[in-house]
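$ fold --in a.seq
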Amino acid sequence: MYNTYLKIKTISKTSFKKYGTILEHTKKKSGYEPLVKVKSNGWIWAALTIKKKYIDFIECHTNSRESFEPAFGTTIIVLAQSKTPHKPEAFLLDNPILLNERVWHNVLSLSETSQVKITENTDVKGRRIEFKKRFSSVLTFK
């Protein structure tokens, strides 16, 4: 198995729009502001600790949105649109995000260890695709 390197992009409203929502204040500068409302039979809150420096599979949830909220370390989230799972993009996960249903995703760590908080429906259903090659990200300096 060989590596394919992905350029790390920053999350912005423009670059992330096709994948979901950036969880940030939109109307207020401070205080409580509900950002997204989703009907559910219940929720799972989880901590995901990441040590892998590459991904060799990608998954999507067909019936649930899913949040990824950075806790510590440097996490890269790899995303692909529903019809093109073999064409992923890599983003520095430096903002909390909410993925749309059917967005392919996985994470890797640039730190020794990183951690994200995940929230998803309790009745989440999904699919997984194994890659024939590994995808990883590297930092480059000009």
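$ fold --in b.seq
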Amino acid sequence: MDPTELREYLLSFNGVSEEQPFGPEVVVYKVMGKIFALTAYASPLTINLKCEPQLALQLREEYAAVKPGYHMNKKHWNTVTVDGSIPRERFQDMVNGSYDRVVEGLPARKRKVLQTKDPTTKGKPEDWRREFLRDISQ
């Protein structure tokens, strides 16, 4: 999965926003204001994903590309190097799991808003994001 595909996939979830609160090197993806993914669109492409603690350990044992979350709570977060060594479907399961885990932790009123929100409403790219992705894809 290349950076553009990854970004599109992350923004395809309902209620997701994209921000750069830590500077231009890291892009944060939030659902209803809560982080579910952080990515460094550099080489190698990496992403931090939230995970159930036992599954996080299992994934680290199963895949060399999965490490304890960099600058995150290592019990609940993994850093995944997106290098093709993890089957695409399995990687997407990890992303889906991160999103779902964060949604489960939202207050009931926010989950209700999320469920009623138009699923076609996605994050809207801004110029800086397009330029940033174009630069790193070259």
